[in-house]
Amino acid sequence: MDNTLDLALQAVELEVSGPSLDAVHKPFDPEEYGLDPSFRLTKFAELRG
Predict the structure, then answer these.
(1) Is 25 among the domain residues?
(2) Are 41 and 28 in contact (CB under 8 A)?
(3) What is the reported pTM?
(4) Domain count, the chain
(5) Is the dihedral of CA 14, 19, 23, 28 positive or negative?
(6) Neighbouring C-beta atoms of residue 30, cutoff 10 Å
(7) Is 18 left (phi over 0), alpha (psi -120 to 50) or beta?
(8) Is 9 exposed, middle or buried (0-12, 13-18, 19+ CB in 10 A)?
(9) pLDDT, position 1
(10) Which residue of 5, 16, 40, 47 sits 20 to 30 Å from the alpha carbon of 34, by its own alpha carbon?
């Protein structure tokens, strides 16, 4: 229960202070996911039928 309260307080703090842009968006790093460094995402934002 204590962990739930901590998470709720963190969420409220984030809502009030707002995140920095760096915290919200960071560039995709394929090596972070065990992929080849030359891997590129393509059409990742395209809507599918």
Answers:
(1) yes
(2) yes
(3) 0.37
(4) 1
(5) positive
(6) 13
(7) left
(8) exposed
(9) 55
(10) 47
What is the per-residue pLDDT across 1-49, written as a single tens digit (0 to 9) for each? 578 888 888 888 877 776 565 556 678 889 999 999 999 877 767 777 6
Domain that holds residue 26: 19-43
43 token code pair: 């059409």
Scan for tokens 């996911």, then name that residue: 33
Enter the tokens of residue 25: 């968006």
Residue 8 lies in a domain: no
Q: How far apart are the first and last CA of the chain?
A: 42
Q: What is the largest CA-CA distance in the chain?
A: 44
